[in-house]
Amino acid sequence: MKKFLNTAESFLPDALAGLAAAHPELRVDLDTGTVVRSDAPTEGRVALVSGGGSGHEPLHTGFVGAGMLDAACPGEIFTSPVPDQMLSAATAVNSGAGVLFVVKNYTGDVLNFEMAADLASEEGIEVQSVLVNDDVAVEDSTFTAGRRGTGATLFVEKIAGAAAARGDDLASVAEIGRRVNAASRSFAVALTACTTPSAGRPGFDLPEDEIEVGVGIHGEPGRSREKLRPANEIAADVLEIILNDHDLASGDEAIVMVNGLGGTPLSELYLVYGEVSSLLAKRGITIVRRLVGDYVTSLDMAGCSITVCRAEEPFLALWDAPVNTPALRWGV
Amino acid sequence: MKKFLNTAESFLPDALAGLAAAHPELRVDLDTGTVVRSDAPTEGRVALVSGGGSGHEPLHTGFVGAGMLDAACPGEIFTSPVPDQMLSAATAVNSGAGVLFVVKNYTGDVLNFEMAADLASEEGIEVQSVLVNDDVAVEDSTFTAGRRGTGATLFVEKIAGAAAARGDDLASVAEIGRRVNAASRSFAVALTACTTPSAGRPGFDLPEDEIEVGVGIHGEPGRSREKLRPANEIAADVLEIILNDHDLASGDEAIVMVNGLGGTPLSELYLVYGEVSSLLAKRGITIVRRLVGDYVTSLDMAGCSITVCRAEEPFLALWDAPVNTPALRWGV
Questions:
Q1: pTM, two decimal places
Q2: Do both B238 and B291 map to the same domain?
């Protein structure tokens, strides 16, 4: 294993210490396991809390800031955070207007966020949750009943975060978050496996000429092992799968993300985006906003995911609203 | 070789087509090999042009936009662009106030930018150049006489770009670019080699327990092959080398970049940043601004570089000035 780390055990706290040093606008608390906007809570505004296993950076810690998350709870690598982390975060950010939990659909995360919601309710904090389950690759997988939550998490956090920032109430913010998830589909392809610091070796074996089609963000198996093909064929296959599961039609507008899984150069992601853009144009679907880069990663995995979200009203205005976080920033 | 590409031959044009599709605010011209702000030229303002071999994305194409570059000339992977590209770019962006070439110190780039400057002069375009040679690893290397130009290129492009944006004349913009280079030092460590699409295999062999200390951005040899060590020791060694070559002293302020080479997860870069931050604090040096992420890469190479720039007057105000490019954006 070749990584920049001190010890496998201290990897997460050491990385969070670096995040804290780089971003004085965040309160990184290693004791409670939370990353909170240092100006939290904001009086009278709904607060967003997300979290999950670490190893997917910048998700979620890099999305804490104005217009997006109020707090993130980083679990150990590929391991759900515990309810106490979520409760600490909710307590730190609640201004009385309530807290929205954004939860990726993995069994541990779902159970722990539910328990945290109960604990928060007992303390008088109103909580609602949005479950993200956009990954159309497989039903029921390692760690998951139902579909996995992946790239659309960023879309939910950005768009619901903007709704909270403009002063929507908790029910409305939750509703828009659920609508974003319902309007989004994702699918990922791995060229290589990733290596966690604790395991010290790749999570699965993948021959030099094969790809994992439909891979999960922890390296969970996808739909099939296939031979490596040209990027335009891979992009066409992935879009076919996504659109077969979506009711996007000619004339529709979409927000699209081509997301690197951590080990793939930006030039390859742009190349894939070019193919996706051409293929959607041929179907009469217009990409009105896009992200190309590493946003929801799997440590050092080479590969990419594609997320397509229908740009329903009022998603676009909320997408364009100012955001000021370590990993996503515009309008400020 | 596992990459998202159609053919090795079409890799660069396909990636640039994707860039064009993602960024309608850029004019990507495959015929002239240029990426130009679509609102160029800006009347009465000095324009910045940079370029070099591709494979270091987002450098340089991702830094074209308001407050930074007016145009970039992407060469083939790890190959200098040709003088005609630079001349096309200079012609497209010159408003009569002159053009600054930002040139990384590699023999091919230097010769070709010199030839382009001569050609531009013949066409009545006033040109000055800033040579970036911040990499303290080695004197004279593959492709280079003198020191290599690496991470400080971003600093020169950002700070000189802001000087041009506020209306400084050509001599002043060039002068500030040269001062930024003189105030900056960089050093890189590779954990793995990178693979170019045309070669199809890693550029060098590196045993599973060794690192290349002082590696160049094309995988050129560094100072030594060493055993992999804990990140805090690597960071300490790299800073020692950088500061031995710099006159930074206790009480000084610095702008620092911990830059991923393409295949290294963000969490590891933050971990390294945490070590750098602690080590500089112990020397009484205050980091006043920082970047942590992939900015000057080497395709899929795992590794990172550290750049330290003394925050002399007026660098900080120019650093903070608005910038609106695909890869660097704030204040807008």
A1: 0.98
A2: yes
